[in-house]
Amino acid sequence: MIENAQLISLSRQMALQRQMDVVANNMANVNTTGFKSEQMLFEQYDMPVARDRDFQGSDQPLAYVQDWATVHDLSGGDIIQTGNPLDVALNGDGFFSVQTSGGERYTKSGAFQISNTGQLVDLNGNPVLGQGGPFQFGPAEKDVAIAADGTVSTSAGIKGRLKLVEFAQPQALNREGDNLFSGGTPTPSTKTQAMQGSLEKSNVSGITQMAEMIRVTRSYESIAQLMSRQDEMRSAAIQRLGSVNA
Amino acid sequence: MKALYIASTGMSAEERNVEVISNNIANMRTTGYKRQRAEFQDLLYQQMRRAGSQTSNQGNMIPAGLEIGSGVRTVATPRVMSQGSVSPTEKDLDIAIRGDGFFMIQMPDGRTGYTRDGSFERDATGQLVNSSGFVLQPGITIPDTAKSIAIAPNGTVEATLGTDAAPTQLGQLQLANFVNKAGLESVGDNLFVETAASGTPQIGLPNADSNGDLLQGYLEMSNVNSVTEIADLIAAQRAYEMNARVISGADEMMQSTSQMR
Fold it and tell me: What is the pLDDT of residues A15-27, one digit of tens each?
Protein backbone atom coordinates (compact mmCIF):
# COMPACT_ATOMS: atom_id res chain seq x y z
CA MET A 1 0.00 0.00 0.00
CA ILE A 2 2.83 2.40 0.83
CA GLU A 3 4.41 1.62 -2.53
CA ASN A 4 1.14 2.60 -4.18
CA ALA A 5 1.34 6.09 -2.67
CA GLN A 6 4.78 6.42 -4.19
CA LEU A 7 3.66 5.22 -7.58
CA ILE A 8 0.74 7.63 -7.58
CA SER A 9 3.07 10.49 -6.67
CA LEU A 10 5.41 9.38 -9.43
CA SER A 11 2.58 9.48 -11.99
CA ARG A 12 1.85 13.04 -10.88
CA GLN A 13 5.49 14.07 -11.08
CA MET A 14 5.87 12.69 -14.59
CA ALA A 15 2.76 14.57 -15.67
CA LEU A 16 4.03 17.77 -14.06
CA GLN A 17 7.38 17.49 -15.84
CA ARG A 18 5.59 17.28 -19.15
CA GLN A 19 3.38 20.18 -18.18
CA MET A 20 6.51 22.20 -17.46
CA ASP A 21 7.68 21.37 -21.01
CA VAL A 22 4.39 22.70 -22.36
CA VAL A 23 4.71 25.91 -20.32
CA ALA A 24 8.31 26.33 -21.49
CA ASN A 25 7.26 25.86 -25.11
CA ASN A 26 4.50 28.46 -24.75
CA MET A 27 6.92 30.86 -23.13
CA ALA A 28 9.58 30.30 -25.81
CA ASN A 29 7.00 31.14 -28.47
CA VAL A 30 5.76 34.32 -26.82
CA ASN A 31 6.91 36.33 -29.86
CA THR A 32 6.16 33.77 -32.59
CA THR A 33 3.79 35.12 -35.22
CA GLY A 34 0.46 33.28 -35.22
CA PHE A 35 1.46 30.90 -32.41
CA LYS A 36 -1.41 29.38 -30.45
CA SER A 37 -0.87 28.58 -26.80
CA GLU A 38 -1.14 24.97 -25.61
CA GLN A 39 -2.89 23.76 -22.49
CA MET A 40 -2.59 20.37 -20.91
CA LEU A 41 -5.50 18.24 -19.78
CA PHE A 42 -5.20 15.59 -17.11
CA GLU A 43 -7.43 12.68 -16.34
CA GLN A 44 -7.84 10.36 -13.43
CA TYR A 45 -6.78 6.84 -14.23
CA ASP A 46 -8.48 4.32 -11.92
CA MET A 47 -6.50 1.21 -11.21
CA PRO A 48 -9.16 -1.51 -10.77
CA VAL A 49 -6.70 -4.39 -10.25
CA ALA A 50 -5.48 -2.94 -7.00
CA ARG A 51 -8.92 -3.24 -5.47
CA ASP A 52 -9.20 -6.05 -3.06
CA ARG A 53 -12.60 -7.29 -1.97
CA ASP A 54 -11.28 -9.77 0.59
CA PHE A 55 -11.05 -7.10 3.28
CA GLN A 56 -13.98 -6.30 5.52
CA GLY A 57 -14.59 -2.73 4.41
CA SER A 58 -14.48 -1.91 0.72
CA ASP A 59 -11.06 -0.90 -0.44
CA GLN A 60 -10.41 2.52 -1.95
CA PRO A 61 -9.71 2.40 -5.67
CA LEU A 62 -6.38 3.88 -6.62
CA ALA A 63 -6.45 6.92 -8.84
CA TYR A 64 -3.36 7.74 -10.86
CA VAL A 65 -3.00 10.92 -12.84
CA GLN A 66 -2.36 10.80 -16.56
CA ASP A 67 -1.74 13.59 -19.00
CA TRP A 68 -4.40 13.03 -21.51
CA ALA A 69 -4.22 15.70 -24.16
CA THR A 70 -2.89 19.11 -25.05
CA VAL A 71 -5.56 21.41 -26.40
CA HIS A 72 -4.91 24.37 -28.66
CA ASP A 73 -6.03 27.68 -27.23
CA LEU A 74 -7.28 29.14 -30.51
CA SER A 75 -8.25 32.55 -29.21
CA GLY A 76 -7.00 35.45 -31.28
CA GLY A 77 -3.59 36.95 -30.61
CA ASP A 78 -2.88 40.67 -30.58
CA ILE A 79 -2.93 42.18 -34.04
CA ILE A 80 -0.10 44.60 -34.64
CA GLN A 81 0.44 46.90 -37.58
CA THR A 82 3.63 46.34 -39.51
CA GLY A 83 2.99 48.42 -42.60
CA ASN A 84 4.39 45.65 -44.80
CA PRO A 85 1.95 44.95 -47.67
CA LEU A 86 2.74 41.21 -47.59
CA ASP A 87 1.84 40.82 -43.91
CA VAL A 88 -1.70 39.56 -43.42
CA ALA A 89 -3.51 38.99 -40.13
CA LEU A 90 -6.67 36.90 -39.88
CA ASN A 91 -9.56 38.08 -37.77
CA GLY A 92 -11.73 35.03 -37.07
CA ASP A 93 -11.46 31.26 -36.95
CA GLY A 94 -9.88 30.82 -40.38
CA PHE A 95 -6.42 29.56 -41.29
CA PHE A 96 -4.26 30.22 -44.35
CA SER A 97 -3.48 27.19 -46.52
CA VAL A 98 0.06 26.58 -47.73
CA GLN A 99 1.39 23.85 -49.99
CA THR A 100 4.29 21.91 -48.46
CA SER A 101 6.12 18.90 -49.83
CA GLY A 102 4.07 16.80 -47.40
CA GLY A 103 0.73 18.17 -48.58
CA GLU A 104 -1.51 21.02 -47.61
CA ARG A 105 -0.85 22.64 -44.23
CA TYR A 106 -2.65 25.38 -42.32
CA THR A 107 -1.22 28.36 -40.52
CA LYS A 108 -2.25 31.50 -38.68
CA SER A 109 1.03 33.20 -39.49
CA GLY A 110 0.57 35.67 -42.35
CA ALA A 111 4.17 36.87 -42.76
CA PHE A 112 4.51 36.22 -46.49
CA GLN A 113 7.17 36.99 -49.07
CA ILE A 114 7.45 36.90 -52.83
CA SER A 115 9.88 34.25 -54.07
CA ASN A 116 12.45 34.69 -56.84
CA THR A 117 9.95 33.15 -59.26
CA GLY A 118 7.27 35.63 -58.22
CA GLN A 119 5.17 33.28 -56.09
CA LEU A 120 3.57 34.32 -52.83
CA VAL A 121 5.31 32.11 -50.24
CA ASP A 122 5.57 31.76 -46.48
CA LEU A 123 8.87 32.19 -44.63
CA ASN A 124 9.92 28.61 -45.46
CA GLY A 125 9.25 29.12 -49.16
CA ASN A 126 6.02 27.08 -49.20
CA PRO A 127 3.57 28.54 -51.73
CA VAL A 128 0.52 30.21 -50.18
CA LEU A 129 -2.61 28.74 -51.70
CA GLY A 130 -5.40 30.68 -53.27
CA GLN A 131 -8.70 29.17 -54.23
CA GLY A 132 -7.26 28.49 -57.67
CA GLY A 133 -3.78 27.45 -56.55
CA PRO A 134 -0.64 29.48 -55.73
CA PHE A 135 -0.37 33.19 -56.51
CA GLN A 136 2.00 34.17 -59.30
CA PHE A 137 3.19 37.76 -59.69
CA GLY A 138 4.99 39.18 -62.69
CA PRO A 139 8.14 41.29 -62.27
CA ALA A 140 6.41 44.51 -63.32
CA GLU A 141 3.41 44.14 -61.03
CA LYS A 142 3.27 46.32 -57.98
CA ASP A 143 0.92 47.57 -55.29
CA VAL A 144 -0.20 44.20 -53.94
CA ALA A 145 -3.54 44.77 -52.23
CA ILE A 146 -5.34 42.19 -50.11
CA ALA A 147 -8.99 42.89 -49.38
CA ALA A 148 -10.87 41.87 -46.26
CA ASP A 149 -12.39 38.85 -48.03
CA GLY A 150 -8.90 37.66 -49.07
CA THR A 151 -9.00 38.90 -52.66
CA VAL A 152 -5.44 39.59 -53.83
CA SER A 153 -4.99 42.18 -56.53
CA THR A 154 -2.05 44.05 -58.03
CA SER A 155 -1.54 46.72 -60.67
CA ALA A 156 -2.27 43.90 -63.17
CA GLY A 157 -5.74 43.25 -61.77
CA ILE A 158 -7.26 40.59 -59.55
CA LYS A 159 -4.94 37.62 -58.99
CA GLY A 160 -7.26 35.37 -56.99
CA ARG A 161 -8.51 34.89 -53.50
CA LEU A 162 -6.66 33.49 -50.47
CA LYS A 163 -7.82 30.01 -49.52
CA LEU A 164 -9.04 30.58 -45.98
CA VAL A 165 -10.28 27.47 -44.23
CA GLU A 166 -11.80 26.61 -40.89
CA PHE A 167 -12.36 23.39 -39.02
CA ALA A 168 -15.39 21.94 -37.27
CA GLN A 169 -13.03 20.27 -34.81
CA PRO A 170 -9.93 22.45 -34.59
CA GLN A 171 -8.70 20.48 -31.55
CA ALA A 172 -8.04 17.53 -33.85
CA LEU A 173 -5.34 19.50 -35.69
CA ASN A 174 -1.78 18.33 -35.19
CA ARG A 175 1.09 20.75 -34.74
CA GLU A 176 3.86 20.31 -37.28
CA GLY A 177 6.29 23.01 -36.12
CA ASP A 178 7.17 25.94 -38.41
CA ASN A 179 3.85 27.54 -37.37
CA LEU A 180 1.99 24.87 -39.35
CA PHE A 181 -0.96 22.69 -38.45
CA SER A 182 -1.99 19.51 -40.29
CA GLY A 183 -4.92 17.13 -40.37
CA GLY A 184 -8.59 17.86 -39.95
CA THR A 185 -11.22 18.40 -42.60
CA PRO A 186 -10.99 21.95 -43.92
CA THR A 187 -14.13 23.78 -44.96
CA PRO A 188 -14.08 27.22 -46.61
CA SER A 189 -14.21 30.01 -44.09
CA THR A 190 -16.57 32.82 -44.94
CA LYS A 191 -16.54 34.84 -41.74
CA THR A 192 -12.76 35.30 -41.46
CA GLN A 193 -11.46 38.73 -42.38
CA ALA A 194 -7.99 39.34 -43.75
CA MET A 195 -6.17 42.48 -42.66
CA GLN A 196 -3.30 43.60 -44.85
CA GLY A 197 -0.29 45.30 -43.27
CA SER A 198 -0.86 43.60 -39.92
CA LEU A 199 0.33 40.45 -38.21
CA GLU A 200 -1.31 38.32 -35.55
CA LYS A 201 1.12 37.90 -32.68
CA SER A 202 1.32 34.87 -30.43
CA ASN A 203 -1.67 34.54 -28.07
CA VAL A 204 0.56 33.38 -25.20
CA SER A 205 -0.05 35.49 -22.12
CA GLY A 206 3.20 35.88 -20.21
CA ILE A 207 1.45 36.40 -16.89
CA THR A 208 -0.74 33.30 -17.17
CA GLN A 209 2.22 31.14 -18.17
CA MET A 210 4.33 32.52 -15.30
CA ALA A 211 1.55 31.76 -12.81
CA GLU A 212 1.15 28.31 -14.34
CA MET A 213 4.88 27.71 -14.04
CA ILE A 214 4.92 28.69 -10.37
CA ARG A 215 1.97 26.38 -9.74
CA VAL A 216 3.75 23.50 -11.52
CA THR A 217 7.04 23.95 -9.64
CA ARG A 218 5.26 24.28 -6.29
CA SER A 219 3.07 21.22 -6.74
CA TYR A 220 6.13 19.29 -7.93
CA GLU A 221 7.89 20.32 -4.74
CA SER A 222 5.00 19.35 -2.52
CA ILE A 223 4.75 15.95 -4.22
CA ALA A 224 8.48 15.49 -3.67
CA GLN A 225 7.95 16.33 0.00
CA LEU A 226 5.08 13.89 0.17
CA MET A 227 7.28 11.16 -1.22
CA SER A 228 9.96 11.92 1.37
CA ARG A 229 7.34 11.68 4.12
CA GLN A 230 6.17 8.35 2.72
CA ASP A 231 9.70 7.13 2.76
CA GLU A 232 10.12 8.22 6.38
CA MET A 233 6.92 6.40 7.25
CA ARG A 234 8.17 3.26 5.61
CA SER A 235 11.54 3.45 7.29
CA ALA A 236 9.82 4.00 10.67
CA ALA A 237 7.57 1.02 9.99
CA ILE A 238 10.50 -1.19 9.09
CA GLN A 239 12.39 -0.11 12.18
CA ARG A 240 9.46 -0.68 14.49
CA LEU A 241 8.22 -3.94 12.98
CA GLY A 242 11.70 -5.33 12.49
CA SER A 243 12.76 -4.58 16.04
CA VAL A 244 13.43 -7.70 18.16
CA ASN A 245 11.63 -6.08 21.09
CA ALA A 246 8.36 -5.71 19.19
CA MET B 1 12.76 17.18 -18.65
CA LYS B 2 12.98 19.30 -21.80
CA ALA B 3 11.79 22.56 -20.21
CA LEU B 4 15.38 23.73 -19.65
CA TYR B 5 16.32 23.35 -23.29
CA ILE B 6 12.98 24.71 -24.53
CA ALA B 7 13.42 27.85 -22.44
CA SER B 8 16.99 28.21 -23.70
CA THR B 9 15.73 28.26 -27.30
CA GLY B 10 13.35 31.01 -26.18
CA MET B 11 16.20 33.00 -24.65
CA SER B 12 18.41 32.71 -27.70
CA ALA B 13 15.52 33.70 -30.00
CA GLU B 14 14.81 36.81 -27.91
CA GLU B 15 18.52 37.59 -27.89
CA ARG B 16 18.42 37.53 -31.72
CA ASN B 17 15.37 39.73 -31.60
CA VAL B 18 17.15 42.31 -29.45
CA GLU B 19 20.13 42.22 -31.85
CA VAL B 20 17.87 42.94 -34.82
CA ILE B 21 16.05 45.73 -32.98
CA SER B 22 19.30 47.34 -31.82
CA ASN B 23 20.63 47.27 -35.40
CA ASN B 24 17.46 49.02 -36.53
CA ILE B 25 17.80 51.67 -33.85
CA ALA B 26 21.51 52.13 -34.62
CA ASN B 27 20.60 52.75 -38.27
CA MET B 28 17.72 55.10 -37.53
CA ARG B 29 19.51 57.97 -39.26
CA THR B 30 21.15 55.91 -42.04
CA THR B 31 20.13 57.11 -45.49
CA GLY B 32 18.10 54.52 -47.37
CA TYR B 33 18.22 51.95 -44.53
CA LYS B 34 15.37 49.43 -44.52
CA ARG B 35 14.40 48.03 -41.16
CA GLN B 36 14.54 44.30 -40.42
CA ARG B 37 12.17 42.23 -38.36
CA ALA B 38 12.96 38.93 -36.65
CA GLU B 39 10.43 36.21 -37.46
CA PHE B 40 10.04 33.12 -35.30
CA GLN B 41 8.58 29.68 -35.77
CA ASP B 42 7.87 26.87 -33.34
CA LEU B 43 10.08 23.78 -33.49
CA LEU B 44 8.93 20.20 -34.01
CA TYR B 45 6.40 18.57 -31.71
CA GLN B 46 6.71 15.27 -29.95
CA GLN B 47 3.38 13.54 -30.62
CA MET B 48 2.68 11.42 -27.56
CA ARG B 49 -0.94 10.70 -28.45
CA ARG B 50 -1.80 11.66 -31.98
CA ALA B 51 -5.16 13.34 -32.50
CA GLY B 52 -7.45 11.20 -34.65
CA SER B 53 -6.01 7.84 -33.63
CA GLN B 54 -8.63 5.24 -32.77
CA THR B 55 -9.40 4.35 -29.19
CA SER B 56 -11.83 1.50 -29.82
CA ASN B 57 -13.01 -0.90 -32.46
CA GLN B 58 -16.19 1.19 -32.71
CA GLY B 59 -14.14 3.88 -34.39
CA ASN B 60 -13.96 6.28 -31.47
CA MET B 61 -11.17 8.76 -31.98
CA ILE B 62 -8.93 10.82 -29.75
CA PRO B 63 -10.36 14.33 -30.16
CA ALA B 64 -7.18 16.19 -29.21
CA GLY B 65 -3.63 14.89 -29.25
CA LEU B 66 -0.91 15.13 -26.65
CA GLU B 67 1.83 17.20 -28.18
CA ILE B 68 4.93 18.49 -26.46
CA GLY B 69 6.74 21.22 -28.38
CA SER B 70 10.46 21.73 -28.37
CA GLY B 71 10.83 25.49 -28.48
CA VAL B 72 11.32 28.23 -30.99
CA ARG B 73 13.73 29.25 -33.70
CA THR B 74 14.47 32.44 -35.56
CA VAL B 75 13.56 31.66 -39.14
CA ALA B 76 14.16 34.89 -41.00
CA THR B 77 14.95 38.57 -40.64
CA PRO B 78 13.10 39.94 -43.67
CA ARG B 79 13.56 43.58 -44.51
CA VAL B 80 10.51 45.76 -44.65
CA MET B 81 11.02 47.46 -48.01
CA SER B 82 8.54 50.27 -47.44
CA GLN B 83 9.27 53.82 -48.54
CA GLY B 84 11.23 55.90 -46.06
CA SER B 85 10.35 59.56 -45.69
CA VAL B 86 12.24 61.92 -48.01
CA SER B 87 13.97 64.88 -46.48
CA PRO B 88 15.24 67.94 -48.39
CA THR B 89 19.01 68.50 -48.41
CA GLU B 90 19.28 71.20 -51.09
CA LYS B 91 22.33 69.41 -52.50
CA ASP B 92 22.09 68.96 -56.27
CA LEU B 93 23.63 65.45 -56.29
CA ASP B 94 21.35 64.02 -53.60
CA ILE B 95 18.66 61.87 -55.18
CA ALA B 96 15.77 60.09 -53.51
CA ILE B 97 13.77 57.32 -55.20
CA ARG B 98 10.05 57.74 -54.73
CA GLY B 99 8.67 54.25 -55.33
CA ASP B 100 10.40 50.99 -56.24
CA GLY B 101 13.94 50.59 -57.56
CA PHE B 102 17.58 50.62 -56.53
CA PHE B 103 20.60 52.58 -57.75
CA MET B 104 23.34 50.36 -59.17
CA ILE B 105 26.86 50.75 -57.81
CA GLN B 106 29.99 49.12 -59.24
CA MET B 107 31.66 47.46 -56.27
CA PRO B 108 35.49 47.04 -56.19
CA ASP B 109 35.12 43.21 -56.29
CA GLY B 110 33.36 43.43 -59.65
CA ARG B 111 29.86 42.76 -58.39
CA THR B 112 27.04 45.22 -58.69
CA GLY B 113 25.69 46.61 -55.44
CA TYR B 114 22.14 47.90 -55.17
CA THR B 115 21.25 50.77 -52.88
CA ARG B 116 18.48 53.18 -51.96
CA ASP B 117 21.08 55.66 -50.67
CA GLY B 118 21.21 58.42 -53.27
CA SER B 119 23.87 60.72 -51.81
CA PHE B 120 26.34 61.00 -54.67
CA GLU B 121 29.48 63.03 -55.19
CA ARG B 122 31.82 63.74 -58.08
CA ASP B 123 35.23 62.08 -58.03
CA ALA B 124 38.46 63.56 -59.45
CA THR B 125 37.45 62.65 -63.01
CA GLY B 126 33.92 64.04 -62.63
CA GLN B 127 32.21 60.64 -62.40
CA LEU B 128 29.27 60.23 -60.05
CA VAL B 129 30.30 58.05 -57.06
CA ASN B 130 28.65 57.12 -53.78
CA SER B 131 30.00 58.05 -50.34
CA SER B 132 32.52 55.18 -50.47
CA GLY B 133 33.81 56.31 -53.85
CA PHE B 134 32.22 53.43 -55.80
CA VAL B 135 31.10 54.41 -59.29
CA LEU B 136 27.40 54.73 -60.07
CA GLN B 137 26.17 52.56 -62.96
CA PRO B 138 25.56 53.51 -65.76
CA GLY B 139 28.46 55.93 -65.36
CA ILE B 140 27.73 59.63 -65.65
CA THR B 141 30.57 62.11 -65.98
CA ILE B 142 29.96 65.73 -65.17
CA PRO B 143 32.54 68.05 -66.76
CA ASP B 144 34.31 70.72 -64.69
CA THR B 145 32.57 73.47 -66.57
CA ALA B 146 29.10 72.17 -65.70
CA LYS B 147 26.80 74.51 -63.85
CA SER B 148 23.31 74.07 -62.46
CA ILE B 149 22.98 70.29 -62.69
CA ALA B 150 19.37 69.20 -63.08
CA ILE B 151 18.15 65.62 -62.58
CA ALA B 152 14.67 65.02 -63.95
CA PRO B 153 12.16 62.57 -62.36
CA ASN B 154 12.84 60.20 -65.29
CA GLY B 155 16.59 60.19 -64.54
CA THR B 156 17.85 62.52 -67.27
CA VAL B 157 20.91 64.42 -66.04
CA GLU B 158 21.37 67.83 -67.62
CA ALA B 159 23.84 70.63 -66.97
CA THR B 160 24.71 73.97 -68.48
CA LEU B 161 28.27 73.76 -69.77
CA GLY B 162 30.48 76.86 -69.68
CA THR B 163 28.73 79.77 -71.26
CA ASP B 164 26.17 77.71 -73.21
CA ALA B 165 22.67 79.03 -73.23
CA ALA B 166 20.92 75.66 -73.43
CA PRO B 167 21.58 72.75 -71.05
CA THR B 168 23.37 69.63 -72.36
CA GLN B 169 22.14 66.12 -71.60
CA LEU B 170 24.90 64.18 -69.80
CA GLY B 171 23.16 60.83 -69.49
CA GLN B 172 20.23 59.08 -67.94
CA LEU B 173 20.17 57.25 -64.60
CA GLN B 174 18.78 53.73 -64.49
CA LEU B 175 17.19 51.76 -61.68
CA ALA B 176 17.15 48.04 -60.92
CA ASN B 177 14.15 46.26 -59.49
CA PHE B 178 13.72 42.76 -58.07
CA VAL B 179 10.84 40.34 -57.84
CA ASN B 180 11.72 39.53 -54.24
CA LYS B 181 13.37 42.58 -52.73
CA ALA B 182 13.39 41.01 -49.27
CA GLY B 183 15.65 38.26 -50.68
CA LEU B 184 18.56 40.63 -51.37
CA GLU B 185 21.68 40.06 -49.32
CA SER B 186 22.93 42.98 -47.24
CA VAL B 187 26.67 43.57 -47.54
CA GLY B 188 26.89 46.71 -45.40
CA ASP B 189 27.75 50.22 -46.63
CA ASN B 190 24.02 50.58 -47.49
CA LEU B 191 24.52 48.07 -50.31
CA PHE B 192 22.64 44.94 -51.26
CA VAL B 193 23.71 42.23 -53.72
CA GLU B 194 21.48 39.88 -55.66
CA THR B 195 20.94 36.29 -54.52
CA ALA B 196 19.18 33.27 -55.95
CA ALA B 197 16.19 34.23 -53.80
CA SER B 198 15.92 37.81 -55.00
CA GLY B 199 15.90 36.88 -58.69
CA THR B 200 17.79 38.73 -61.38
CA PRO B 201 17.61 42.52 -61.54
CA GLN B 202 15.18 44.10 -63.99
CA ILE B 203 16.93 47.20 -65.19
CA GLY B 204 14.81 50.06 -66.39
CA LEU B 205 14.39 53.80 -66.47
CA PRO B 206 13.01 55.76 -63.55
CA ASN B 207 9.34 56.67 -63.77
CA ALA B 208 8.84 53.86 -66.29
CA ASP B 209 8.14 50.13 -66.03
CA SER B 210 7.46 49.56 -62.33
CA ASN B 211 10.20 51.89 -61.11
CA GLY B 212 9.65 54.97 -59.00
CA ASP B 213 10.65 58.48 -59.99
CA LEU B 214 13.64 60.49 -58.80
CA LEU B 215 13.66 63.56 -56.60
CA GLN B 216 16.72 65.80 -56.85
CA GLY B 217 17.87 67.55 -53.69
CA TYR B 218 16.24 65.03 -51.38
CA LEU B 219 17.46 61.94 -49.54
CA GLU B 220 15.42 58.97 -48.43
CA MET B 221 15.66 58.54 -44.68
CA SER B 222 15.52 55.12 -43.01
CA ASN B 223 12.07 53.61 -42.55
CA VAL B 224 12.74 52.81 -38.88
CA ASN B 225 9.97 53.97 -36.59
CA SER B 226 11.56 54.66 -33.21
CA VAL B 227 8.35 54.19 -31.23
CA THR B 228 7.65 50.68 -32.60
CA GLU B 229 11.29 49.70 -32.16
CA ILE B 230 11.34 50.73 -28.51
CA ALA B 231 8.03 48.94 -27.87
CA ASP B 232 9.45 45.82 -29.57
CA LEU B 233 12.61 46.14 -27.50
CA ILE B 234 10.65 46.21 -24.24
CA ALA B 235 8.56 43.20 -25.33
CA ALA B 236 11.70 41.26 -26.32
CA GLN B 237 13.46 42.08 -23.07
CA ARG B 238 10.48 40.95 -20.97
CA ALA B 239 10.12 37.76 -23.00
CA TYR B 240 13.82 37.07 -22.37
CA GLU B 241 13.32 37.54 -18.64
CA MET B 242 10.30 35.26 -18.56
CA ASN B 243 12.19 32.52 -20.39
CA ALA B 244 15.01 32.90 -17.87
CA ARG B 245 12.42 32.45 -15.10
CA VAL B 246 11.26 29.21 -16.74
CA ILE B 247 14.85 27.95 -16.60
CA SER B 248 15.09 28.69 -12.89
CA GLY B 249 11.65 27.09 -12.40
CA ALA B 250 12.81 23.92 -14.16
CA ASP B 251 15.95 24.04 -12.05
CA GLU B 252 13.85 24.20 -8.87
CA MET B 253 11.95 21.13 -9.98
CA MET B 254 15.14 19.22 -10.61
CA GLN B 255 16.47 20.37 -7.27
CA SER B 256 13.45 19.02 -5.42
CA THR B 257 13.91 15.75 -7.33
CA SER B 258 17.52 15.45 -6.30
CA GLN B 259 16.65 16.21 -2.67
CA MET B 260 14.08 13.42 -2.54
CA ARG B 261 14.97 10.48 -0.36
Answer: 999 999 999 999 9
Question: Across chain A, what does the average pLDDT equal?
Answer: 87
Comparing alpha-carbon positions, the chain B residue that sits nearest to A70 is: B66
What phi-psi label fits residue B27: left (phi over 0), alpha (psi between -120 and 50 degrees) or beta? Answer: alpha
CB contact under 8 A, B246 and A124: no
**A9, A12, A20: best mutation site toward chain B, by most B Cβ within 10 Å?**
A20
A179 touches B: beta carbon within 8 Å: yes
Which residues, in sequence order, are CB contacts of B58 under 8 Å at separation 6+?
none
Whether B20 and B58 share a structural domain: yes
B46 falls within a domain: yes
Q: Which residues of A fall within a CB distance of 8 Å from B10?
A: 24, 27-30
Q: Residue A235 half-sphere exposure, CB side, CA atoms within 13 Å?
A: 7
A38/B236 CB distance under 8 A: no
Establish if B34 belongs to a structural domain.
no
DSSP type of residue B94: B
The Cα–Cα gap between B210 and B206 comes to 8
User: How many structural domains are present in chain B?
Assistant: 2
- CA A56 to chain B, closest CA, distance in angstroms equals 34
Across B76-83, average pLDDT:
89
Given an 8 Å threshold on Cβ–Cβ distance, is A178 in contact with B42?
yes
pTM above the 0.90 mark?
no
Considering only the beta carbons, identify the residue of A115, A217, A227 that sits closest to B253: A217
If asked whether residues B9 and B51 sit together in one domain, one would say: yes
* Structure confidence by residue, pLDDT tens digits, B12-64: 999 999 999 999 999 999 999 999 999 999 999 988 888 777 877 887 877 78
Regarding whether B199 and B135 lie in a shared domain, the answer is yes
Q: Give residue limits of the domains in chain A.
A: 2-75+205-235, 84-200
Same domain, B68 and B125: no
Residues in chain A within 8 Å Cβ distance of B62: 69
Does one domain contain both B154 and B235?
no
ipTM for the complex shown: 0.78
Angstrom distance (rounded) from CA A207 to CA A155: 45
Domain that holds residue B48: 2-28+39-76+225-258
Mutation for testing the B interface, residue in A6, A18, A26, A29 having most B CBs under 10 Å: A29
A190 class by beta-carbon count within 10 Å (0-12 exposed, 13-18 middle, 19+ buried)? exposed
